[in-house]
Amino acid sequence: MKYLNVNAHLHTPYSFSAFDKLTDALDKAVNENVKVVGINDFYSMDGYVEWNDEALKRKLYPLFNIEFISLQEDDQSAGIRVNDPNNPGRTYISGKGLKCPPNLPEPFASELANVRNESNAQVHEMCIKLNEALKSCEASFVLDFNKIKQDLTKGSVRERHLAKALRLFVYNLYRNDEVSIKTFFEDIFGHKPMKADVQNHAAVENEIRGNLLKAGGAAFVPEDPKAFLPLEKVRQIILAAGGIPTYPFLADDAKGGFTGFEQDVAKTAEILRQRGIFSTEFITTRNSIEVLERYAGYLFDNGFVVTFGSEHNTPAMEPVELFARGGAPLTERLKQINYKGACIVAAHQELVRSGKPGYVNAEGKADVVHREEYIKIGDEAIRKVTDN
Predict the structure, then answer these.
(1) Where would I find the beta strands (DSSP E) of the chain?
(2) CA-angle at 145, arms to 143 and 147, nearest 5°
(3) Do residues 119 and 227 make contact, with C-beta atoms less than 8 angstroms apart?
(4) How far apart are CA 179 and CA 192, in angstroms?
(5) What is the pLDDT of residues 28-72, one digit of tens each?
(6) How confident is the model at residue 176 (pLDDT cuts 50, 70, 90)?
(7) How far apart are CA 154 and CA 107, in angstroms?
């Protein structure tokens, strides 16, 4: 079997993305010989039809995914950091291989809509506080939340959109004069020296977030607990949408550290099984090759679906082709694991679309015994698209 390049986790403008247009991600995939591409926006399936149509035009096989931030209260009470290094109990969960066109029945559709509304409401409050900070430093303008939502988003507003909107407004106001821009930001940052190069837009937006929108910043607004569904509820929503609940591993940080939940991959795998999760993923640029080989290898060898992605949910533009930390190329073993994982997700999509049972059933139990058959079905489906 030839292992095609896969990126199974790409954010688009339907949440927040390095890409200005959804099709930019697909064009970049074509240019970098990535053949299987997975849309993976926060709380949103709105981009699925466009992703499907535009991917097929480019002979790319589309995967339909989603991402949530959930809360595992037992882990929170125990102080266990899961895959958010700063917030005990907070747990990112993806769904892979959802139905396209989206089809989410009630009450799940309303529960998803409520979470999105809560997330938008928090950012609206941030915008109000950011405008107060602008007034306090005698800025000549304020930001219009509705205009930001209209001009920079597809409906879901993230704090990164606020940072981008502020940068764009300031750069336009001062006609890209670097001295004036730097002076403005140092003023609103409380006279802290600006570290970012004004020409590095991604770094400037990250500095805006760090100084103004994060904890301790003038525009920080803590997230309302209502914005986080319990992990089991998120799992049910993903299953109702036809998908495969998937745990995104944080794995090793730049110093080689792990969260308490993830430090022993065998124990983590067992807990995931107990929680009804039989699929995992990694954002490879976070991790060393050694850890990716060890963790992804263990999980795949022990029956889990394993896929990789790049996210692209920051302003920084990175390759769509996947690399490990520091730009290290993926090994053949990792490419094999990633492609076989994508094949299982593809097979699940194809089977569910035709009204047949997929890789996981309605309760979320995975058909691990027949995993090789799903890999074969998915490989055939992918090649029908990419070989034409």
Answers:
(1) 6-10, 36-42, 61-71, 90-96, 229-230, 244-249, 279-283, 305-309
(2) 90
(3) yes
(4) 15
(5) 999 999 999 999 999 999 999 999 999 999 999 999 999 999 998
(6) confident
(7) 23
Residues forming a β-bridge with 93: 68
Q: What phi and psi, each to the nearest 5 degrees, are found at residue 246?
A: -135, 135
- Residue 43, class by beta-carbon neighbours within 10 Å (0-12 exposed, 13-18 middle, 19+ buried)? buried
Which pLDDT tens digit goes with each residue over 12-32? 999 999 899 999 999 999 999
Instruction: Give the contacts of 384 (CB within 8 A, at least 6 positions apart).
Output: none
| Confidence check: pLDDT of 226 > 80 | no
Can you tell me which residue has the tokens 């490989």? 379
Give the least confident one: 76-85, 266-275, 303-312, 377-386.
Answer: 76-85
**Strand bridging mode 229-230 / 61-71:** parallel
pLDDT bucket at 259, cuts 50 / 70 / 90: very high
The letter for the amino acid at 190 is G
CA 98, distance to chain mean position in Å, is 15
**CA-to-CA distance for 71 and 73, rounded, in angstroms?**
6
Long-range contacts of range 368-373, CB-CB < 8 Å, 24 or more positions apart? Answer: 368/278, 368/303, 371/303, 371/344
